[in-house]
Amino acid sequence: MSNVPSDLKYTKTHEWLRTLPDGTVEVGITDHAQHALGDLVFVEVPDTGRKLSAGEPFAVVESVKAASDVYSPIAGEVTAGNPGLAAQPEAINSDAYGKGWLMRLRPSGAAAALLSPAEYEKLIAEEGD
Amino acid sequence: MGRRTPLFELHQKLGARIVDFGGWDMPLQYGSQIAEHHAVRRSAGVFDVSHMCIVDLDGARVGAYLSHLLANDVGKLKAPGKALYGCMLNETGGVIDDLIVYFLGESWFRAVVNAGTRDKDLAWMRQHAGKFGVTLRERTDLAMLAVQGPQARGKAVSLLPAAAATKALALEPFFGREIDGWFIARTGYTGEDGFEIMLPASEAERVWKALNSAGVASCGLGARDTLRLEAGMNLYGNDMDESTHPFESALGWTVALDPPGRDFIGRGVLEAIRARGPQRKLVGLLLSDRGVLRAHQKVLVPDAGSGEITSGTFSPTLERSIALARVPAAAGARVQVDIRGKLHEARIVRPPFVRHGKALVS
Fold first, then answer.
1. Cα separations (Å) of A14 from A29, A71, A73, A76, B345?
2. Beta-carbon separation of A38 and B292 below 8 A
């Protein structure tokens, strides 16, 4: 059973969002997504200062098997890409909601439709494993 | 729902992620694909390869039949049980499939062909069998397990009675024989030592569980692919197909043009290609940067045009990306690969990348 923390927001494309105390937003991929991808071996995170629109691909996560885009759930400016993932992409497998974060950004607008934890759990239950 | 092997239910119980492979529902991985890969390089792993098609070929002229059907020469097989790897070509020299044949007697060979090409292979083989009086028997009654790794043979024979274990351990590389109702061959697709075991389908589940108990890890098709690529072995449909010939698929070593009189399908075209020199070659690539090489990425060759990656992955043993690529024959040592619009440096190397647990490139 996938881990879906109750204090985060989610997207239909399997990203999670955490609002930090300074108003910036941390984004990563969900436990369900990392499980579906398998062992991650390479991650490309965005450069600081990059401006993103909602729905724009901002990162690439590659498992042994395939490369996948990750989409920004919200428009804004990147304040940090996770520097630790270059050496340890497997942090996404072991700690998707912690050490496996992909980027932090300062939002410049409202988020596209986000899912509550309950809605996201329903989505992945419908998709199956 | 795809076709299922006798081990399908066990794979599900073991928690495998099931994927479609050539119309078959097969295990991709049971847990971590990288852990499964390392198990085979360092210890032992077992793969369900029952989806592959085992076909027995019978007839007094079966040797002449295979001599016509295959680009490699079954005339090389003198000792009973000896295996031969080679290609079945069409009239234009394109590869219909790659396969292994075992020489089991003057009127009996066993072929193992790929799952995804099963139907077209059998049709082609039957089409040419008639005039040689050869009959084909699909052995759907058998399951096939590949037990691979430095400790694979020792662990596998621990399941056998002592006399049978002794016989199995005496097998030389690339030989197989019938032992107590199992056909055991010292062959594989990983670059490690090990066995491929063909056994009655009804015994497969019990044997798999016994192998697990003996410390042999369940391994899926994901690890099988990274292992074979590290070992520099082609995958049919990726690295060669009916539109490519053996000389541009790093399979020239499997084409036996001697003796000159042997009339195999595709021979005339291959002789012409060899006379003028192949235009392209299949090479190994080692990515210098971080990132992952994937099939169909474009390869830019200085002063010689461009080519394409046919198989690419992250090598768990080397901890960097490797690939096979078809490039212009004039390509030198350095190329660039277009990964999502950015050019990355890569080096042409001669596969295998890894063999018997050791890195052969750096």
1. 6, 9, 10, 19, 32
2. no
Please give the tally of structural domains in chain A. 1
With a cut of 70, say whether residue A129 has pLDDT above it: no
Domain that holds residue A91: 15-109
Q: How confident is the model at residue B186 (pLDDT cuts 50, 70, 90)?
A: very high
Give the CATH number of the domain where residue A105 resides.
Answer: 2.40.50.100
* DSSP structure string for B280-340: EEEEEEEESSSS---TT-EEEETTTEEEEEEEEEEETTTTEEEEEEEEETT--SEEEEEET
The per-residue pLDDT for range B71-85, each reduced to its tens digit, is 999 999 999 999 999
Kindly state whether residue A79 falls inside one of the protein's structural domains.
Answer: yes
Q: Nearest residue on chain A to B339, judged by CA atoms? A: A67
| Nearest chain B Cα distance for residue A126, angstroms | 17
Of the listed ranges A62-71, A103-112, B4-13, B188-197, the one predicted with least confidence: A103-112
Mean pLDDT, residues B169-175 taken together? 98
**Given an 8 Å threshold on Cβ–Cβ distance, is A67 in contact with B34?**
no
Chain B residues whose beta carbon lies within 8 Å of the beta carbon of residue A64: 33-34, 222, 226, 313-314, 316
Mean per-residue pLDDT for A5-14? 96
Which chain A residue's Cα is nearest to B33? A39
State the smallest CA–CA distance between residue B278 and chain A in angstroms: 32
Average pLDDT across chain B, whole number: 97
CA dist list (Å): A109 to A19, A69, A78, B279: 14, 22, 13, 55
Q: What is the mean pLDDT of residues A45-51?
A: 97
Residue A129 lies in a domain: no
ipTM given for this complex? 0.86
User: Within a domain: residue A94?
Assistant: yes
Rounded to the nearest angstrom, the minimum Cα separation between B319 and chain A is 9
Residues of A in contact with B340 (CB under 8 A): 60, 67
Query: Is residue A96, in this structure, part of any structural domain at all?
Result: yes
